[in-house]
Design a protein that fits this description.
heterodimer; A: 352 residues; alpha/beta; Rossmann fold; 2 domains; four-stranded antiparallel beta sheet; 30% strand; B: mainly alpha; 9 helices; 0% strand; binds adenosine-5'-triphosphate; binds magnesium ion; ATP hydrolysis activity (chain A); NIL_domain (chain A); cell membrane (chain A); membrane (chain A); ATP binding (chain A)
Chain lengths: 352, 224
């Protein structure tokens, strides 16, 4: 056995593929996925329904085995572990679920104690550990209640406390906030953020909501039809999205979409007749657009129509998105000017 | 009714209770593990053993489709080999247990299959062994359903135990037939029927009470 490396990735996917035997032959859920999650990172994986998010996540604790490639957690090859070695790895990886998966027959205390009972922890140690966890997630008053008597947010807190009971190094979250209302989602995300900071826990979470990624993830990956199409630091992906899937997720969260009367008339190639070029302008950090657009008109003599816009925050860093249109004849000049001043531009199309 | 008849009734009642209790205990000892296995051994499940699962499933179905009265007669040689006689309460326990076992197995299987697959998943993710999942998750979560299933089994066994009276068993069924029917004593018949009704009611009520006690799935108003 090789000793566990003290440095290196917390989670590593290396050319991972997964095929399921379906009724109509093989279904490819994942193809050639490579991804590295550093210790202490919060990595958000976003994708549409059926993209392969859950399959990817479930490989980290061996609930699913790769058909090709390797999945490594803290230096252990999960895909090839079995029996007690696999159970040992699983104790180092906590997991929370969309539908909480709490035992209806056990109280809050009993549910959080379960992983410790399974690990064979003596009962006096269990009592101390569980009471600490209950305090950490703020459920002291619900200690002896059953899940049926808890709200969704409280249930997920139990789920989180349970996942932390064996002091794992990695926490997996499968749509943990999808069954919660927006306000409760915020409190649960804040709790996960606190845990990440206080315990240095690596978190891998999957979601179909860009807002969740924005609010908590330091890194993100976009998965589409079983492939990772984009990955990197969350801020970078938000500011410079490359893939159409990423962009469509982003337009959902930033709320910056073309007004319907323009989107319906948008043409991809520039028409010969007089037309307007529709441009997305993204500004990161402290760049302010207002004076930029004013100067575009003043210095370059280019008139600007503002179609939509919003400012977002990722962690402490702001970034903004603006949809504008200019006379198509002057489009190249306008974009060159803006790019020169540190803004990112992208041509969305043309309208007559 | 004469004092003699009353003591006969009391004795027959105890015999019925004995037969039902013994076959319930034996049927549970055999049926519970069988039901757990049936519920967890299909392809891809915890104890995945699809061939054994199919064979046991066929045997259970076959046993359950034999009418009880035919079962009693058909296994007389087996009963005699086991307890040395084919009449009396001890002999009656053999066919009662054989009828109870597959019945209880299927009831346990159904209750366990109703446990949310997400709980098995969560327990696997915690690093639980299959036996830990069965003990700490499946059996405990299925307990309300299993309790109601056992209640149903006891009620059925009370009925079956009256039937074995017709073929040499003892107990209330035997008394009802010998006195109530053959000697035409309708008051004995009526008393037997009333005792059986009371027994069934009691079992049903106690069973439902226990099931409600162990069932934590619905929110209760806890008054504090
Ligand atoms: N056990 C399985 N057997 C067969 N096919 C499966 C199995 N699990 C997943 N799949 C298939 O693999 C693909 C990816 O599924 P997965 O559950 O990973 O998607 P997802 O991104 O989590 O979707 P959702 O957002 O709806 O949860 C889907 O086409 C799905 O039908
Ligand atoms: Mg999923």
């Amino acid at each position: 056995m090789t000793p566990e490396p003290t440095t290196g990735a917390a989670i590593r996917f290396d050319g991972v593929g997964k095929a399921f035997a379906g009724p109509k032959g093989q279904v490819t859920a994942l193809e050639d996925v490579s991804l590295t999650v550093q210790p202490g990172a919060v990595c958000g994986i976003i994708g549409r329904s059926g993209a392969g998010k859950s399959t990817l996540l479930r490989m980290v604790n061996g609930l699913e085995r790769p058909t090709s490639g390797t999945v490594t957690v803290a230096g252990h090859d999960v895909g090839r572990a079995s029996g007690s070695a696999l159970r040992g790895i699983r104790r180092d990886v906590g997991m929370i679920f969309q539908h909480f998966n709490l035992l209806a027959s056990r109280t809050v205390f009993g549910n959080i104690a379960l992983p410790l009972e399974i690990a064979g922890t003596p009962s006096d140690r269990i009592r101390v550990t569980v009471n600490d966890l209950i305090a950490r997630v703020g459920l002291e008053a619900q200690r002896d209640r059953y899940p049926a008597e808890l709200s969704g947010g409280q249930k997920q807190r139990v789920g989180i406390a349970r996942a932390l009971a064996t002091r794992p190094k990695v926490l997996l979250s499968d749509e943990a906030t999808s069954a919660l209302d927006p306000e409760t989602t915020q409190t649960v995300l804040r709790l996960l953020g606190d845990i990440n900071r206080d315990l240095g826990l690596t978190i891998l979470l999957i979601t179909h909501e860009m807002a969740v990624v924005r609010d908590i993830a330091s890194h993100m990956a976009v998965i589409d039809q079983g492939r990772i199409v984009e990955a990197g630091a969350t801020y970078d992906v938000f500011v410079r999205p490359q893939h159409p899937t990423t962009r469509s997720f982003l337009s959902g969260v930033t709320g910056v979409t073309l007004p319907q009367f323009i989107a319906g008339r948008l043409e991809q190639t520039r028409p010969d007749a007089a037309s307007q070029e529709v441009i997305r302008v993204t500004f990161a950090g402290d760049h302010a657009t207002d004076p930029m657009l004013a100067r575009l008109t003043g210095q370059m003599g280019i008139d600007v129509n503002i179609l939509a816009g919003a400012i977002e925050e990722i962690g402490p860093r702001p970034f903004g998105n603006l949809l504008i249109s200019v006379d198509a004849m002057r489009g190249d000049d306008a974009r060159a000017y803006l790019e020169r001043h540190g803004l990112l531009t992208e041509v969305l199309g043309y309208v007559r | 009714m004469s004092a003699n008849l009353i003591s006969l009734l009391i004795e027959a009642t105890w015999q019925t209770i004995y037969m039902v209790a013994a076959s319930t205990v034996l049927g549970t000892i055999l049926g519970l593990p069988l039901g757990v296995f049936l519920a967890t051994s299909q392809r891809g499940e915890l104890l995945s053993a699809p061939m054994v699962n199919r064979v046991l499933g066929l045997i259970v179905n076959a046993a359950r489709s034999v009418p009880f009265i035919i079962l009693v007669v058909a296994i007389i040689p087996f009963t005699r080999a086991l307890v040395g006689t084919s009449i009396g309460t001890d002999a009656a326990i053999v066919p009662l247990t054989i009828a109870a076992t597959p019945f209880i197995a299927r009831l346990v299987e159904n209750s366990i299959r109703e446990v949310d697959a997400g709980l098995i998943e969560a327990a696997r993710a915690m690093g639980a062994t299959p036996m830990q999942i069965i003990r700490k998750v499946l059996l405990r979560e299925a307990l309300p359903g299993i309790t109601l299933g056992l209640t149903l089994a006891v009620v059925s066994l009370i009925g079956y135990s009256a039937m074995v009276g017709a073929v040499g068993g003892e107990g209330l069924g035997d008394l009802g037939i010998r006195y109530g029917y053959q000697r035409f004593m309708p008051d004995v018949m009526l008393t037997v029927v009333v005792i059986l009704i009371v027994m069934v009611q009691l079992v049903q009520s106690v069973g439902e009470w226990i099931a409600a006690r162990v069932d934590k799935r619905a929110a209760r108003n806890r008054g504090h």
